[in-house]
Amino acid sequence: MKSGRGIEARSRAGQFGAHMWARRWVSDLESVVSRGAAQLARTDARKDKVLSLGHSGRTVRCDVESSRPQPFTVEFRFAPLDETDSEALRTALRQEENGVLGALAGEFSDTIGFLLLPAVHGATSYSCHCPVQPGPCRHVLAAAYIMVEWWDASPQVMFELRGLGADQLGAVLRGPGGEGDTVGVDVEESLWGSDPLLPTVPSPAPAGLEDLLDAPVTRRMAAAATNDPLEQLRVVADLEDFLDAFGDYRSR
Ligand SMILES: [Zn+2]
User: Can you give the pTM of this predicted structure?
Assistant: First the structure.
């Protein structure tokens, strides 16, 4: 029965997804369709009918096989964090067992998951070009099931889906208009000033500049710069930009 063309679903029966926050989100989508419609979509996902999954910023796009010659393209759009979300996330990140950078790497509690993935009806916008409107149609649901399994494997993408990717982080934290830098600590002074808080060099030495980003040295640099978890993320984003620029001078 399997077409074998698309993304293989891990769940063979019952619910999709291991995380409570993702299950809640998918239940919210299912809440406006009949049990039968949801079951059809589950079967579609398990028959590998979701052909592709790609994301860019806050948008996820999936092609889903249908009875027509061309697949339908499903698109999900996640809202950026508003002021209330940002404040709640900032507070929650301070209490994370693995710290803010652990959370950024995908090791975060359900509390963070629920904040990153709101499940209020209408919070996630989706579209499909099939005749079933406004949906969610079976294509949207099948894509959602595969997306939930993607989050099991890579929960860290949730930050990017809410507009907290490395590129956007600084702008999100600065607020609308990009005015008023909110970093209360002089990063340059704390790292390179008269009394610098320099971290120890990791051992063994990193193989390349890229390794520094995941290494303890980066975490210590961010922690030395600020106590604010979201601003620590911003420091890491700035370090990424710096390393990108620095890479241009590497000897070839
Ligand atoms: Zn559809």
Answer: 0.69
Looking up tokens 């002021």, which residue turns up? 83
Predicted confidence at residue 12, as pLDDT, reads: 85
Separation between Cα atoms, residue 230 and residue 164, nearest integer Å: 10
Residue 221: pLDDT band (50, 70, 90) is: confident
Distance from Cα 32 to the centre of ligand 1, integer Å: 15
**How many A from CA of 155 to the centre of ligand 1?**
26
Domains of the chain, by residue range, sit at: 20-161, 166-247
Q: How far is CA 93 from the centre of its chain?
A: 15
Q: Is the pLDDT of residue 248 over 60?
A: yes
User: Of 52-61, 90-99, 141-150, where does mean pLDDT reach its minimum?
Assistant: 90-99
Q: What's the CA-to-centroid distance between 102 and ligand 1, angstroms?
A: 37
Both structure tokens of 14 = 């019952």
CA 160, 116, 241 angle in degrees (round to 5)?
25
β-pair type (124-128, 50-56): unpaired
Q: Which of 58, 45, 61, 55 is nearest to 10 (CA)?
A: 45
Instruction: Compute, in angstroms, the gap from residue 23 CA to the centroid of ligand 1.
Output: 21
Distance 27 CA to ligand 1 centre (A): 18
